[in-house]
């Protein structure tokens, strides 16, 4: 059942469930001539548009559509563009839903833009509606250099008929503009479009659609009337997790780079590739890439076992992650000090709230075949200028790897990885009076052996750090807003304490859709704070943070939930 009610909260305008705008900026050369239509508009909609394939002139609505527009005059007050929500951010959710509906229900609509672009209007100084996330450009391929009115006019007619219910405050199509507050169409070009020497785009290849603030934030699929005029709303399912991953599970990769790919998911505009690396004792977070395509090329930092999974975002929401797929980078399958062949199974429990409840991964390492006889070890004090790391020779080994870390600032940090062809390596530690630790492995025709355990030695006058082999969490502290804090300002600044040596930070933000947490956006500023403008009003959000230092990403902090506006605690 289609809801039809007037929206009066938060502004003085009247409308019935609005939708965040569809706005697309296309650039292509065409005329912007003005001329009367030369045919009879009688008959049904199909008959009318069949006569309108490419028109010399501009879009003019049929009489019944024009009357529907006049009847809605004054129903909606135009909401000006007030602030940019950030280039690259997704358009507002209501706008995205309307755009998806139009693309899926009108044959001529080819695509629409999903992201915000902060700029002024073309040829002017005022802020473009594209900067607010309330505008979308819905593309209609041209016929030659003319508008395809067979494809575009039905969309424009639909928008006029349903402007109040959709929250469409304004649109432009084929040199014609419609403002719902006025209730009638008028010439958009006049002396402003290209053929008149002006800078305006005639919008012959796309509809520019703007939504009210409320509609852009709150329009739901159930509020969108069907194209055929019947009762009921439009709905779209949350996408399924991608399948057919490559590299396939338990494959070795011998190239310098790896391209992760999954099947294309219809309507997907964001893919998130989550990667973990096996450190010899368990899986650790490596990196999460977000792209607009179903593949991602990257260069792994070290030879190791990696596993990855992917999820997608469409207008229907964000899918679950795919199953884990494990690959061995630069080593033979199963030979790393990593998971067994069953390592692709994910045992993480479902996230049920603001606290991470993931269980410990149950993948187990195979029986160790690591080199023996490691020296120096056990906190040995080394006072010579150089240090020789050594292990017993491994039969058939033609390559060894010595992974060295230094103890600094209360943490073990990567120092250097040596790759000799013999079972010993002499080096000159750069840092004086510091504790070091190292481990080694060997490569044979069967691949890499396991790593040895970590071996600590004390260089110069260093004292033993008495630190665990794997330090406790190094996640940022002091996360703000505080957990369950209510925020009344238009903008929110998320921040954490500075992390020594950090070159950038990552703030992952999610919003609650009433049932589950969904991805909102991940910001990567160079400082320990980020200001943003939440576009879903009166909603619960949560944020966590991590920092990037010379030794890689820290752990994530815990989640902090904040309540934006009149949001309820989820």
Brief digest:
Residues 241-250 have a biased composition (Polar residues). Residues 336-368 have a biased composition (Low complexity). The chain is mostly beta strands and 570 residues long.
Structure description:
The protein is mainly beta and 570 residues long. The chain has 4 domains: 179 residues, no CATH class; 123 residues, Sandwich (Immunoglobulin-like); 80 residues, Immunoglobulins (Immunoglobulin-like), CATH 2.60.40.10; 98 residues, Immunoglobulin-like. Helices cover 9% and strands 29% of the residues. Strands 1-2-6-3-4-5 form a 6-stranded antiparallel β-sheet. Strand 3 and strand 4 form a beta hairpin. It holds the Pfam family VldE. InterPro entries: ARB_07466-like_C, Ig-like_fold, Zn_M74/Hedgehog-like.
Attribute tags:
570 residues; mainly beta; Immunoglobulin-like; six-stranded antiparallel β-sheet; six-stranded mixed β-sheet; 6 helices; 9% helix; elongated; Zn_M74/Hedgehog-like
- Helix-strand makeup class: mainly beta
Specify the number of helices: 6
Strand content: 25-35%
Strand order of the largest sheet: 1-2-6-3-4-5
Give the uncertain stretches in residue-range form. Answer: 1-52, 341-366, 467-471
Helical amount: under 10%
Gyration radius, in Å: 30 Å
Distance between the termini: 27 Å
User: Which of globular, elongated, flat, extended, rod-shaped describes the shape?
Assistant: elongated
Q: What is the typical, i.e. mean, pLDDT? A: 78
Number of strands: 30
Oligomer: single chain
Total tally of structural domains: 4
């Amino acid at each position: 059942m289609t809801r039809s009610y007037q929206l009066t909260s938060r502004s003085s305008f009247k409308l019935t469930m609005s939708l965040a705008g569809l706005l697309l900026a296309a650039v292509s050369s065409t005329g912007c001539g003005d001329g009367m239509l030369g045919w009879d508009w009688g008959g049904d909609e199909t008959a009318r548009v069949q006569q309108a394939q490419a028109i010399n002139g501009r879009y003019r609505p049929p009489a019944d559509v024009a009357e529907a527009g006049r009847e809605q005059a004054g129903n909606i007050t135009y909401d000006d563009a007030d602030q940019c929500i950030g280039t690259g951010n997704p358009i507002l959710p209501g706008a995205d839903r309307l755009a998806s509906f139009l693309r899926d229900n009108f044959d001529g609509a080819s695509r629409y833009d999903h992201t915000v672009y902060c700029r002024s209007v073309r040829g002017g100084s005022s802020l473009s509606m594209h900067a607010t996330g309330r505008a979308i450009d819905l593309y209609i391929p041209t016929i030659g250099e003319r508008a395809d009115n067979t494809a575009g006019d039905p969309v424009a007619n639909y928008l006029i008929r349903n402007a109040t219910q959709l929250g469409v405050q304004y649109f432009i199509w084929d040199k014609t503009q419609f403002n719902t507050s006025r209730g009638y169409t008028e010439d958009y070009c006049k002396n402003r479009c290209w053929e008149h020497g002006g800078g305006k785009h005639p919008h012959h290849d796309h509809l520019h659609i703007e939504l009210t603030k409320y509609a852009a934030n709150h329009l739901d699929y159930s509020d969108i009337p069907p194209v055929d005029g019947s009762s009921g709303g439009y709905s779209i399912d949350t996408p399924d997790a991608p399948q057919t991953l490559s590299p396939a599970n338990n494959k070795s990769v011998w190239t310098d780079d790896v391209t992760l790919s999954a099947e294309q998911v219809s309507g997907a505009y964001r893919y998130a590739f989550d990667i973990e690396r096996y450190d010899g004792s368990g899986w650790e977070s490596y990196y999460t890439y977000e792209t607009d395509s179903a593949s991602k090329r990257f260069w792994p930092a070290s030879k190791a076992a990696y596993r990855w999974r992917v999820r997608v975002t469409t207008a229907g929401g964000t899918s679950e992650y795919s199953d884990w797929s494990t690959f061995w980078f630069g080593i033979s399958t199963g030979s790393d000090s990593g998971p067994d062949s069953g390592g692709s199974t994910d045992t993480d429990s479902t996230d049920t709230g603001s606290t991470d409840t993931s269980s410990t991964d149950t993948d187990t390492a195979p029986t160790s075949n690591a080199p023996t006889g490691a020296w120096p070890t056990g906190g040995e004090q080394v006072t010579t200028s150089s240090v020789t790391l050594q292990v017993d020779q491994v039969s058939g080994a033609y390559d060894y790897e010595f992974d060295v870390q230094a103890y600094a600032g209360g943490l073990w940090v990567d120092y250097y990885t040596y790759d000799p062809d013999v079972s010993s390596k002499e080096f000159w530690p750069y840092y004086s009076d510091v504790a070091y630790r190292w481990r080694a492995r060997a490569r044979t025709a069967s691949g890499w052996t396991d790593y040895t355990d970590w071996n600590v030695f004390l260089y110069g006058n260093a004292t033993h750090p008495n630190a665990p082999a794997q330090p406790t969490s190094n996640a940022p502290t002091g996360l703000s807003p505080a957990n369950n804090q209510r925020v009344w300002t238009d903008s929110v600044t998320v921040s954490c304490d500075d992390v020594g040596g950090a070159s950038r930070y990552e703030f992952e933000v999610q919003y609650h859709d009433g049932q589950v947490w969904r991805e909102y956006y991940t910001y990567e500023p160079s400082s320990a704070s980020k200001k943003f403008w939440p576009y879903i009003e009166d909603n619960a959000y949560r944020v966590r943070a991590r920092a990037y230092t010379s030794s890689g990403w820290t752990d994530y902090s815990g989640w902090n939930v904040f309540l934006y506006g009149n949001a309820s605690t989820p």
